[in-house]
Automatic annotation (TrEMBL):
Pfam families: 5-FTHF_cyc-lig (PF01812). The keyword Membrane does not apply. Its cofactor is Mg(2+). This is 5-formyltetrahydrofolate cyclo-ligase. It comes from Niabella yanshanensis. It is an enzyme of class 6 (ligase). NCBIfam families: MTHFS_bact. Belongs to the 5-formyltetrahydrofolate cyclo-ligase family. One of its GO terms (molecular function) is 5-formyltetrahydrofolate cyclo-ligase activity. Its EC number is 6.3.3.2.
Amino acid sequence: MLKSEARKVFSAKRKTTTAQQRLKWDDLILIQFQSLSLPDIDMLFTYAAMEMEVNTDPIVDYLHFRNPAIQVAYPVCEFDKYTMQAVLATPDTPFIKNQYGTPEPETAGASIIPPEAIDLVILPLLCFDKLGYRVGYGKGFYDKFLEQISDEVLKVGLSYYEPIDKIQDLNEFDVPLDYCITPERMYEF
């Protein structure tokens, strides 16, 4: 399946998924995530979910329970360059929606986290394939960011849906996931 086709198919699928289904699936994804054998995580880079995305809040809470000193950073997009920065957030940090409706932490006075300080990345996606490649929203923000992190950093995708067989139009900028977690199971690549 081509990325453009996958975006259409899975965007439409998301629109037919009810809020009740998403809540149930978020719980099942958390249970799957808790079975993941993780090293010590001091710096998490994750996303603040839009309405149709897998909610990362329960996973962040779980990681805080495992390590109360964990720090959490969220992306703030730079739309003129299609890049993003990791911005440190606390439970008191206000979030505002960017031009695409994605919640981002307020940046005034916030710390920018260098990519090399990150231990775990949790990525949003529209779909993924059986080789661990993801289809995002098509702007390349995450691909450019992932180029800057160590190969040792775990990259975990979260998906409400099972994988497609293969993304046919991969390019040299596509970075595979280490894991993708669905309500049904955890995929390791």
